[in-house]
Design goal:
This protein is an alpha/beta fold. The chain is built from 11 helices and 8 strands. It folds into 2 domains: about 5-200, Alpha-Beta Complex (Spore Coat Polysaccharide Biosynthesis Protein SpsA, Chain A), CATH 3.90.550; about 200-254. The chain has an 8-stranded mixed sheet with strand order 3-2-1-4-7-6-8-5, sandwiched between helices.
Length: about 250
């Protein structure tokens, strides 16, 4: 099956040394790199690598300086800018700091044979952290709540189900919005893989605080659910972020 890969890049030349091979080894028909104010050699590395391997697909380099003022979250715009220009219905999202598991190929080959329109692929953080183990535990208890920021999805299903005004409004978790939008109408699936996420979380408190805000704005979780989740993750900042978003009455998305 022909598919496109979309990845935003902001000064990622160090990570690209480790991740480019895994991206192109999947044999995509198209790679769309959304270059976000890059001042390093990321663009040159991409061009040199595709020449080196004699890449027969299409490489699109989309350079972005400023984003439209309607968008709250820059990453949400960057991804969707890439989605809109993709020439294939099947799109795989990734990031410059992710080494993709080649077993993803099997799911790409089989994509579209049933009513599944979005698949999320679980990541292994490097180095390992407690968030990974907590997510694995939660996936056993609540499998529908499990998804990751690496997705294979149908462009047609995305255009049909996600409202642009919601994507413009989110403050974080643009991937959660897309996953939930498609899952409302079509079947979704989560698969744990051995894909490696090379960027460690330097500020866990900030990460959990933003997850709490997302639980209010995007996923519409109850107080009890977020409180229990913060206990599982051993981080009260998650509940604090949720309560803050609720008090501020941050505008929710659908």
């Amino acid at each position: 099956m022909k598919f496109s890969i979309v990845l935003p890049i902001h000064n990622e030349e160090e990570n690209l040394r480790y991740t480019l091979k895994s991206i192109f080894d999947l044999q995509p028909d198209e790679v769309i790199a959304v270059l976000d104010n890059c001042t390093d050699h990321s663009k040159q590395m991409l061009e040199a690598y595709t020449r080196q391997i004699n890449f027969r697909g299409r490489l699109q380099l989309l350079e972005v300086k400023e984003i439209p003022k309607e968008w709250n979250y820059r990453v949400a715009y960057l991804f969707r800018h890439g989605y809109h220009v993709a020439r294939n219905d099947a799109i795989l999202t990734t990031a410059a700091d992710i080494v993709l598991d080649q077993n993803v190929k099997r799911h790409i080959r089989e994509f579209g044979r049933d009513d599944v329109k979005i698949i999320s692929f679980g990541l292994i953080p490097y180095p390992l952290d407690r968030i990974y183990f907590a997510r694995k535990l939660i996936s056993l208890i609540l499998p529908r709540s499990t998804f990751s920021g690496v997705f294979l999805f149908s462009k047609k299903a995305w255009l049909e189900t996600e409202r642009e005004e919601d994507a413009q409004r989110v403050l974080r978790a643009q991937d959660t919005l897309m996953f939930r939008s498609i899952r409302r109408v079509y079947r979704a699936r989560h698969v744990w893989t051995h894909s490696l996420h090379l960027r460690s979380r330097s500020n866990e408190s900030k990460f959990y605080y933003s997850r709490g805000m997302v639980s209010y704005q995007v996923t519409h979780r109850s107080d009890l659910f977020v409180f229990l989740s913060s206990m599982v993750y051993l981080h009260p900042k998650m509940f604090a972020g949720y309560r803050h978003a609720k008090r501020m009455k941050i505008r929710q998305v659908r």
